[in-house]
Amino acid sequence: MSEMAQTAEEATVRRPDLSNARLRKRYAAERRFRLYGLLAVLAAVGMLAVLLGSIVLNGYSAFLQTHIALDVHMDETVIMAEGDTPEAMADANYRALVFKAIERRFPSVRDMGEQRELHRLVSGGAPRAIKDMVLDNPALVGTTQTVWVKADDEIDMLHKGYVDRTLPENRRLVNDRTLGWYDSLREADLIELQFNTTFFTGTDSREPEQAGILGAAVGSFLTLFVTLLLSFPVAVLAAIYLEEFAPKNRLTDLIEVNINNLAAVPSIVFGLLGLAVIINFFGFPRSSPLVGGIVLALMTLPTIIISARSALKAVPPSVREAALGIGASRIQTVTHHVLPLALPGVLTGTIIGMAQALGETAPLLMVGMVAFVVAVPSGFTDASTVLPVQIFLWSDSPERAFVEKTSAAIMVLLAFLITMNAVAVFLRKRFERRW
Amino acid sequence: MKVTLYLIALVLIVGFGYWVGRRRAFAVSGGRPAHLHSLPGYHGMFVALWCGLPGVLLAAIWFFVEPHVAEYVLVQNLPAEQLEQEADRLALLIVDVKNIAAGYNVFREVTPELEAAAAAYNRVFEIGRAVMLVVALCASIAGLAIGRRLISPDLRARNRVERVMTVVMIVASTIAIMTTLGIVLSLLFEAMRFFGRVPFFDFLFGLKWNPQTAIREGQVAAEGSFGAVPLFAGTLLITLIAMLVAVPVGLFSAIYLSDYAPKRIRATVKPLLEILAGVPTVVYGFFAALTVAPFVRDAVAAFGLEASSESALAAGAVMGIMIIPFVSSLSDDVMNAVPQSLRDGAYAMGATQSETIKQVVFPAALPGIVGAILLAISRAIGETMIVVMAAGLAANLSANPLEAVTTVTVQIVALLTGDQEFDSAKTLAAFALGITLFAATLCLNVVALHIVRKYREKYE
Description:
Chain B: Part of the binding-protein-dependent transport system for phosphate; probably responsible for the translocation of the substrate across the membrane. Chain A has 435 residues and is mainly α. In chain A, 66% of the residues lie in helices and 5% in strands. Chain A has helices spanning 2-14, 18-59, 76-79, 86-90, 94-105, 112-119, 126-136, 153-159, 176-187, 198-201, 214-245, 250-262, 267-279, 289-314, 317-325, 330-358, 362-366, 387-395, 401-431, and strands at residues 64-73, 144-150, 191-195. Chain B has helices at 2-28, 40-77, 80-83, 87-102, 112-150, 157-197, 200-205, 229-260, 263-278, 281-302, 312-337, 340-348, 353-382, 385-390, 408-417, 425-459; strands at residues 209-210, 225-226. Chain B is flat and about 80 Å long.
């Protein structure tokens, strides 16, 4: 009994309470380290949330557009001034109709300068809308119609609450007079938000309320089509050769190192290549989806090759051996057995490569796809722009209204990217085989 | 239009060739296809290749020489006295004539001679292309006839088709090499022309960057100075800031996700981090310019300091966010590659989890992590859109992260997106910057990939 007490005492003498304190310290360090890790993850996820949140908060309002109700008198003497054929009616001065309608709404405004300000309440695209209405239904001529026309972008901003009314007039987007008109329209319930179809059906414009993404989206589609057409077959063939046929020698080693390096070359360098070789040397048309597609194809090639190779590598050798064993040639083995089994993986890699190409901007700036293009491109050699470049162009525009347009365009782009990645994930989940 | 028609005709002929080949093979086998050397389908492909290859090659060659032929015809059609001017002015004239041909307005009196030259230029595209496409189609049809004649029961159709396929595969796998070669040669060629005007060392060590050159001869304007040191310094400053954000956050998230996080959290957070990598850079650029830059300015103002609205801090921080997933996923990989036995050994000695990570796993994974960080640096140096949108154009030589600095990529974009002559020192400077960028990132990549690969082999 006393002996045991003695050994316990000796133990405490040799190692007094110190061990516990040290243990506590070590455990504290452990907890701290763990906390740092958690904080890092939270920081990363938080940044993602802030990024996406700021885009959505800035952009959701662009899907709505402020409209003003005008009682437009379809004055015969104006519309039929040059005759009553559709051509003559198309040439009529619809601006005058719109202006008169606004002036009638505010009869007290007599001063020329003030009237000009008044005209700026509605979008410059309003006369066109009236014209289309009249041409669609000539019976309207001579009647008075209540028409919802687009408001100017500044009124739009005001209505959406982006204009701070407390600022002094000279630092405000909208002056006091316009503010008064806006308030009177609002009290009369003649101004409201409607769904902004122009954003999806229009092309680039200097006027924010008339700007849309259709042209850029079509340009993106054409460009990606060229990219897919070029990079998919070339990448799959290259991957098959390198994985299944290539002898192990210095040349194939070089190709392999080269592909890995090419995947990490800055994208803007591919743009320089496109400018110097494809445009200036081969004389391909500048700003066209064709050139953009070729540049992006060269850029995505390594990505697709690398993922296609790993998909091929995942097919077990027994499959090849069985095929060769019953007398298939090496190419038959690959095309009949290995490639079909690897195809889901190859397609996943291709979709991810395409998503990367869809979001790419810098190389396309180099090959001239930054042009201000109003027409929807109709072919592979037309001047066009793409969604990310459109975002870049709009983000550069000074008008406040382009901020929300830019954010909305980003939301559309992200929606495309998320869809593509979701398809890739689905393919992987649905068709991938574990051997 | 013509090209579309040609492609449709080509597809039809090739399809027809396949059908003809198959039928012919059945015919020559005398109704017993087992007597053929190859399956009838291979005879079909054999004839289809005979249809496709010669014609497509002809058409492809024409498309590459077409612009050069057209330009030759254009020069031949210019009046003789116009040809006797300096090469620069002649090149300008040729560009103008091409613009006339395309129907654009030019700053030059359009004489009938020029119009004639433009018309001749257009004719090459109209007539020449039509003739060549017809010739190519004829070649396809001739190929069909030849291929069909060659078919016999002993024809080793499969071997021939497979040989063609192998050649095509080899060509496809050399395209990557060709791309690299194309990049190096084109950049080098243009950069050489630049260094013919601006001495190499002035470019590499010059302290002043101001690429405004005289547009017309005799114009009073600055010669333009092309000292790239401020650009290199700006690039390094922004990269450094990006790394200060990305490395700690990326490393610690990798550690947390690989060693601490419960499975469920890992399964949700990893894809979220991958979203960060998938967001287009133009979106980051917009975020930096619209949200982060004003935030930095206000935050700094609270401390009584003044930040430029295009501060290096904002661009660098956002670039850091973009790079987090690169660092975290690559480090995750290398730390997972450290054998479990090393961890088990450390636990057996009584080490806590964090001690194991800090003193065993991390040192073992260090080379791989260094490789990952080098790859991330290379990514940051070459990143373009964030800095174009959020960093400035002013070439300040400054280490103050609150000031505006410019980077190599920003200047490349700025030099090449304006409308200007392709041969000016200004545009050529972009290629000199481009090859510097390419060389720097290539070195980083080679070293990093080598380290990562070496490291992976060590534990396999």
